[in-house]
Amino acid sequence: MADLRELYQDTILDHNKRPRNFREIADASATAVGHNPLCGDRVTVYLRLDDGTIEDISFVGQGCAISKASASLMTDAVKGKSKADAHRLFERFHKMVTARPGDPVDASLGKLAVLSGVCEFPVRVKCASLAWHTLEAALERKQETVSLE
Amino acid sequence: MAKPAKVMLNVPAIKADFPILQRTIRDKRLVYLDSAATSQKPKQVIDATSDFYSRYNANVHRAIYELGEESTREYEGAREKIAAFIQAKSPTEIAFTKSTTESLNLVAYGYGLKGKIQKGDEIVGTVMEHHSNHVPWHFVKDHKGAVLKYVDVKDDGTLRMEQYDDLLTDRTKIVTVSLCSNVLGTINPVKEIAKRAHEVGAICVVDAAQAAPHMPIDVQDLDADFLAFSGHKMLGPTGIGVLYGKQELFEATEPLLGGGEMIREVHLGSAKWNDVPYKFEGGTPNIAGAIGLGVAVDYLTKIGMEAVRGHEMEITEYALEKLARLKGVQTYGPKDVKKRAGVVSFTIDGAHPHDIASILDVEGICVRSGHHCAQPLMERFNLPATARASFYIYNDMDDADALVAGIKKVQEVFA
Ligand SMILES: Cc1ncc(COP(=O)(O)O)c(C=O)c1O
Hints:
The complex is a heterodimer of chains A (149) and B (415).
Chain A: H1 4-7, H2 10-17, E1 30-36, E2 41-50, E3 53-62, H3 65-78, H4 83-97, H5 125-139, E4 146-147
Parallel strand pairs in A: 1-4
Antiparallel strand pairs in A: 1-2, 2-3
Helix pairs in contact in A: 2-3, 3-5, 4-5
Chain B: H1 11-16, E1 24-25, E2 28-29, E3 31-32, H2 43-56, H3 66-85, E4 94-97, H4 100-116, E5 122-126, H5 135-144, E6 147-151, H6 161-167, E7 172-178, H7 190-199, E8 203-207, H8 219-222, E9 226-230, E10 241-245, H9 247-251, E11 263-267, E12 270-273, H10 287-303, H11 305-324, E13 329-331, E14 343-348, H12 353-362, E15 365-366, E16 368-370, H13 375-380, E17 386-390, H14 397-413
The complex binds pyridoxal-5'-phosphate.
């Protein structure tokens, strides 16, 4: 049975209340805006890239606890990583939040595993992946707003 | 209980008619508080639609045989019931559509875009409309050069009526307004709005999607020119809606769909249309849906729309009182239940509406979260989203209590 505490773990609540890297980057080399029209969530991701490595990353925006915590955890997780590694991490993350409830969680996801409870709430998958889709757009330097319909 | 029980409906008896309300959600009793999105259906309605398919399925108006006569009789019988339900003068003033959305598009297209509206003519709407009463009028603006104006909403959730007077000019051709807001619950003074529209020679289009299920509607008293609503919000099936139009305005409205059913004669390159309302019902209609809606109207009429309204006022007052006592919880719309329906939008400090809905879901409580297809209104109140609970005949004080307990749980999680 889906448990409230599985979805809203303390780490998530903490990142929701005190999001990490929640700021703009003035000299960002790439930015992208993500929008989830279903709930009105909006996130902007800022990147400073150096030779294919994410030197710095931040975000601003408004959203539900899941999307905000996910964005915050994401920024911590991909900082210092190469573009390719960030992309692979997103793939593994996406697999986790769309897994069947009860499936084993990929240990290499580290802290991101606190969002594994999302798979019990399919309507919240978009909230958890909004920041990641936005990061991908920023990495590909797409200018348009990412919209999760 | 805060109020005398005598005005309350017999909820356990009503609940017994709704098969879905017997089920559990995540091992909890289902507390359905999203009837403003779509209502649940009593077994009488479910049986009526399946009865059509199992006993007398045939196309309407065309079959010579007995089955077709039966289906046509039931389909037209539903039209008569709906006409009586809203005090239309004749069933010919009732057209079946698929929804409120289609009904409003039909008016905007057939009366506005294809009809009377000229460049510079003015259409007055309101800031609180559902997207389905905004976007069709955008089409009229874009294609005919009509000018759109909007009556603002005051902080208390009511329309700025003094501004409405200023917006009306001799170029105003259409005034369009919801009888009841799907976000604020506000019941708008449509009778007064229509009267003033008529004084400048405009017609009044009414979105009754949130009103028809919940309160008595008398189109004669309102003097509405067109009035739209959906079956699925009033115990009926999905995919069936209604457009009421005064006979002479129906005559002056062009059809949205060309095809079978809506014609009298067709030649290569031209056609003569059928009489109203059939000219609006191109193609095989949603026969089972119309019959089901007729039975839903029977169900509501048996309870009595005054009683439905009274029941919902009691729960709404009770819920608003309870919510007002919770610190950090805001509700929107008029505080006086005489001015509002049982739609209660709320926010909780520190908790996003999406999280509110998820946490309530775990408790078996269904509420909506988001912009409720009313983005201009949300912008007016500077809200990205709200949570919304809405009440109907199968809800009672226990459901309101469950909502309050659920909200406390949300506050615990986000403490
Ligand atoms: C006030 C109002 N108008 C129009 C609609 C559209 O109804 P439908 O989706 O059935 O066409 C709704 C439904 O949410 C509504 O609440």
